[in-house]
């Protein structure tokens, strides 16, 4: 099971996350909201997720990710 999290409702981020879903089959796409990374990791561990990808953006343009 994989998780793909992104922050924001900007259309370019949503489209980028959808494209990453094609790369990671069976991924669950979620809005990160205001959660900090440590909270996300703890939640994923508690629910037996195997991988986490956090997508970052700068002014609406995806500019990085963490795995």
- Domain module count: 1
Shape: globular
Number of strands: 4
Percent helix, as a range, is: 25-40%
Assign the CATH topology.
Answer: Rossmann fold
User: What characterizes the major β-sheet?
Assistant: 4 strands, mixed
- If you compute it from the alpha carbons, what radius of gyration comes out, rounded to the nearest whole angstrom? 11 Å
Task: Summarize model confidence as the mean pLDDT.
Answer: 76
Order of helices and strands: EHEHEE
Q: So what's the CATH class?
A: Alpha Beta
Low-confidence parts: none
Distance separating the two termini:
14 Å
Beta-strand portion reads 35-45%
CATH architecture: 3-Layer(aba) Sandwich
Domain Brix: 1-67
InterPro entries: Brix (IPR007109), IMP4/RPF1 (IPR044281)
GO molecular function: rRNA primary transcript binding; snoRNA binding
Protein name: Brix domain-containing protein
């Amino acid at each position: 099971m994989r998780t793909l999290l992104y922050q924001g409702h900007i259309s370019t981020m949503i489209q980028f996350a959808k494209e990453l879903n094609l790369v990671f089959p069976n991924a669950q796409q979620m809005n990160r909201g205001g959660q900090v990374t440590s909270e996300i990791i703890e939640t994923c561990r508690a629910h037996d997720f195997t991988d986490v990808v956090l997508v970052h953006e700068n002014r609406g343009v995806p500019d990085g990710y963490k795995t």
